[in-house]
Amino acid sequence: MGIIIKTSEQIELIRESCRRLAIVHKELEEFIKPGISTRDIDIKGDKLIRQLEGIPNFLHYNGFPASICVSVNDEVVHGIPDKHRILQEGDIVSLDAGMIYKGYHSDAARTHAVGQVSKEARQLMDVTRESFFAGIKMAKVGNHLFDISNAIASYIKPYGYGIVRDLVGHGVGTQLHEDPQVPNFAQIRRGPRLRPGMTLAIEPMVNMGRADVEWLDDDWTVITEDGSLSAHYENTILITEGEPEILTLY
Fold it and tell me: How many other CB atoms sit within 10 Å of the CB of residue 51?
């Protein structure tokens, strides 16, 4: 497919899709508490997306059965919501959600504390989020794609966490997943040069233990192989002539 440089008209529609998705994430953040099920989160997220005139882009994507990916504790990504999976005090829960608005996709993820969490869990969440911001400092015209990857990896490295290698960020726009792939781990090559009009989903996935992951029998849920906690933070960004624009921040 190659990397699609978006027109100004396309950028406006992607920006609006992302603005609405940011509202969904904010509402879901306020909804998270001990005692609710992961299915409750999915039902609320689906309703919010539709109220904002969007279509959940995860629902039925390659057969995924829900609108929100809800991943708890050692689940890295793509957790399938379940009415029997009840959030407990001290859990961490990652919500990955996207919507289609007037044909254009947005994509973002957040990891939330359920009540009071351990100091170690809080640090994992904070480092994962901050690694995203370290990465996008390099998301400027004239730099190369893997400058972002290397900056994310460099931020995480001192903490000794495992950076997931089996899953990466991606382009986003007219499709949920477009070229290029955006790794979160260090690269030898530089990758394509960044150009204005690129829209990218940058999404560090970080494990408290080793980087290794495995897929459950549902063929969707990815878990840490060693059972350690995992955190996920993602925004859709726009490469501009100047500073990158984060499109999915509330």
Answer: 12
